[in-house]
């Protein structure tokens, strides 16, 4: 089922909508945002030079530094009296990125999230327990407004309060839970301690986002909670959650291309990659008034697939994001992503889906320490398991950690609110 016919429209029709909306977005950005006027002028470009999405590659990129340099509202194209909502990025370093929405912008976002919910198999009769944080973070209110738009029932519990989350899953028979992947696992553990097996509850779908999630991690969640795990993607600079989502085929995330135009580039050169090749996702908003964004470098690595999906949707699918270009760990001439470590360690049945990576400097040498939890009640040989994990890491990632610690189940701190942290870099700058 689809919410809007544009989701299955012939690509030529979609293209027409994209070109019209892009021209309008470029005009709005140029006329109303000093940052864009200056970038265009410097590049010797006028809005009329952008007639279609084919012309996008002429434009310079927008980066997170540009948001920082224009903090707080320098990227806004409208006066504050037209803005009816403010959100902000989590801003792990420096100032957060402030974003704003007009009433029309909120309608676009709400519609994008409602489409995501329908793609994930959510219907008006469902009860959706929303465990994303409410507040400046876009997750909570973003999902909330989409659920209401669809006419389903939203439980706005927000993050944390895990025992109460479990009680509500039981008492209100929630059909759908929205949260981060790491929180889904934590919830299952708390439920266990309360003597409740989530697999016995009506809960059938978890819509998760805000953190990268590898395929083995998804499998763990699906098995442990007896659910279908659907990945949703978004970022506050573009809109918040709702830029793309998996459909029930779980074969890539459909991007709502009439609202957000995706490109994939080589992060080193900035050139577009061949279709199907991996690179950095770049997004252009096509229907936002308060904060039009042209060619935003997301830092997220993915590929695009333009084949029509089993579900009938014609809009492009992006790969599940398992790495950000910023997350690449460089140690002694070897690079790897934390998600690659995750994929390897979760292949082992003896290992629980909790791990951390510590990077330290000793003298001039970098050291990598990987800490992995054993499953509950592990009674095998740790030395043997350690050997097998090290061999596998060395075969797949061509590196062996300086230290591999196998620790008892429950030893690694769980994250109850916000995004999980798995990499701890103690090396300083
Ligand atoms: Zn699909």
TrEMBL record:
SUPFAM superfamilies: Acetyl-CoA synthetase-like (SSF56801)
Keyword Cell membrane among record annotations: no
Keywords, ordered alphabetically: Ligase, Nucleotide-binding
Pathway: Aromatic compound metabolism
InterPro entries: AMP-bd_C_sf, AMP-binding_CS, AMP-dep_Lig_C, AMP-dep_synth/lig_dom, ANL_N_sf, PA_CoA_ligase
Molecular function, one GO term: nucleotide binding
The protein, known as: Phenylacetate--CoA ligase
Species of origin: Haloferax marisrubri
């Amino acid at each position: 089922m689809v919410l809007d016919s544009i989701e299955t429209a012939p690509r030529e029709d979609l293209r027409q909508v994209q070109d019209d909306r892009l021209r309008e977005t470029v005009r709005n950005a140029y006329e109303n945002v000093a940052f864009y006027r200056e970038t265009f002028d410097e590049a010797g470009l006028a809005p009329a030079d952008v007639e279609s999405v084919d012309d996008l590659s002429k434009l310079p990129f927008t980066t997170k530094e540009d948001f920082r340099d224009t903090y707080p509202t320098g990227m806004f194209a409208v006066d504050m009296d037209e803005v009816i909502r403010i959100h902000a990025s989590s801003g792990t370093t420096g100032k957060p990125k402030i974003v704003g929405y007009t009433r029309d912008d909120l309608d676009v976002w709400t519609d994008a999230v409602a489409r995501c919910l329908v793609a994930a198999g959510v219907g008006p009769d469902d009860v959706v327990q929303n465990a994303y944080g409410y507040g400046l973070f876009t997750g909570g209110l973003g999902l909330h407004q989409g659920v209401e738009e669809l006419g389903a029932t939203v439980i706005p519990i927000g993050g944390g309060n895990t025992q109460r989350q479990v009680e509500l899953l039981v008492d209100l028979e929630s059909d759908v839970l929205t949260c981060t992947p790491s929180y889904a696992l934590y919830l299952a553990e708390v439920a266990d301690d309360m003597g409740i097996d989530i697999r016995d509850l009506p809960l059938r779908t978890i819509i998760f986002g805000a953190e990268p999630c590898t395929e083995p991690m998804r499998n763990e969640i699906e098995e442990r909670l007896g659910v279908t795990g659907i990945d949703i993607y978004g970022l506050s600079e573009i809109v918040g959650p709702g830029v793309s989502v998996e459909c029930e085929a779980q074969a890539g995330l459909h991007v709502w291309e009439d609202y957000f135009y995706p490109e994939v580039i080589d992060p080193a050169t900035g050139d577009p990659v061949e279709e199907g090749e991996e690179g950095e996702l770049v997004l252009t908003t096509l229907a936002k008034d308060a904060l039009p964004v042209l060619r935003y470098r997301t830092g997220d690595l993915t590929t695009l697939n333009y084949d029509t999906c089993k579900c009938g949707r014609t809009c492009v699918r992006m790969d599940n994001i398992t790495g950000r270009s910023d997350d690449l760990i460089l140690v002694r001439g070897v690079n790897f992503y934390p998600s690659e470590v995750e994929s390897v360690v979760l292949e082992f049945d003896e290992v629980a889906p909790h791990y951390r990576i510590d990077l330290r400097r000793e003298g001039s040498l970098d050291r990598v320490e990987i800490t992995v939890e054993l499953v509950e009640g592990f009674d095998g040989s740790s030395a043997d398991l350690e050997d097998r994990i090290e061999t596998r890491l060395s075969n797949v990632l061509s590196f062996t950690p300086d230290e591999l610690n196998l620790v008892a189940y429950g030893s690694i701190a769980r994250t109850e609110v916000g995004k999980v942290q798995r990499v701890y870099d103690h090396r300083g700058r």
